[in-house]
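Renewal narrative, Specific Aim 1. Our central claim is that a sequence can be written position by position from structural information alone. The example that follows is taken directly from our test logs and has not been curated for this report. It begins with the structure tokens describing the chain, in the order in which they were read.
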């Protein structure tokens, strides 16, 4: 299987049976609908950062490429990786990546289709000309670069600190965490990062992310450090019981947390890659990317 977003696992569906996955996806869809219908009830907490990832420099505006030879863009995505891509209750592809693909096609004024496939078949399907672009949260790595070309990254999986609301702890500089108990998943990139840069912190390794979150809820650690996207969903979900908030960050050091996520195209297809890059820039410039991101991530990991 090709790599995904570095340390991000299937943080919603991991360990669920097929029927449970369907109910989880249904719950996510209904949750989005409820947020749209009752923004005053489910508004983001004031202390939750409304950060949005952005890798586009307004001073380096790309030129609009010639797309006259592109009549259709066949996007491929994965079946069950919500909220990025999943099968909606009506059987139609849905999710952040799917909606972004549709916005790209609108911006380029090019017809497009979105087909769902198993994750391990996506890059082979691209090589076999069964699709033109893969938008499925594939990490840009030295390995994947040998298989496909990528657009500029449109998001990363940042690392974040999370603290209890009642602690008032906001300073997470290395010198400020001397002696602080920090929960982290053992043998993870997050643990390696802390060992390198937060040498005075009292690291408390746990077997998995769920165990770190439980330790924070119970007050066994002062804070936890981990995958920002998974933590954003936890903070905004019922399991956290509103206990906790982000502090400091985000941390996006590529040596530990990856280069980011881009749209994959067949090696050498620069015409399509440049067109997608231009569309991504325009969507960010117009604020459409921000609107889409905040719709799916009401507590942003950035």
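The sequence written for that structure reads:
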């Amino acid at each position: 299987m090709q790599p995904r977003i570095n340390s991000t696992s299937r943080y919603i569906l991991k360990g669920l049976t097929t029927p449970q996955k369907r109910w989880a996806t249904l719950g996510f869809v209904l949750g989005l609908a409820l947020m749209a219908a009752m923004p005053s009830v489910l508004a983001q907490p004031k202390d939750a950062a409304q950060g949005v990832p952005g890798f586009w420099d307004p001073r380096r505006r790309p030129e609009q490429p010639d797309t006259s030879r592109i009549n259709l863009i066949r996007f491929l995505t994965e079946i069950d990786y919500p909220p990025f891509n999943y099968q909606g209750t009506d059987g139609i592809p849905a999710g952040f990546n799917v909606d972004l693909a549709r916005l790209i096609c609108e911006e380029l004024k090019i017809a497009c289709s979105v087909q769902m496939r198993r994750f391990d078949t996506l890059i082979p399907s691209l090589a076999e000309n069964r699709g033109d672009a893969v938008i499925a949260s594939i990490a840009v790595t030295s390995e994947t670069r040998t298989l496909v070309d990528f657009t500029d990254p449109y998001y990363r999986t940042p690392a974040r600190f999370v603290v209890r609301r009642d602690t008032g702890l906001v300073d997470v500089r290395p010198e400020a965490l001397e002696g602080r108990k920090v929960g982290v998943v053992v043998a993870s990139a997050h643990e390696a990062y802390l060992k390198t840069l937060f040498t005075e912190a009292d690291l408390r390794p746990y077997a998995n992310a769920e165990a770190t979150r439980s330790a924070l809820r119970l007050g066994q650690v002062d804070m936890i450090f981990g995958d920002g996207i998974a933590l954003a969903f936890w903070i905004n979900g019922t399991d956290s019981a509103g206990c906790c908030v982000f502090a400091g960050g985000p941390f996006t050091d590529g040596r530990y947390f990856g280069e980011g996520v881009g749209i994959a195209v067949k090696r050498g297809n620069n015409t399509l890659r440049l067109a997608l890059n231009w569309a991504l820039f325009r969507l960010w410039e117009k604020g459409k990317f921000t609107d889409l991101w905040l719709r799916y991530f009401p507590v942003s990991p950035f």
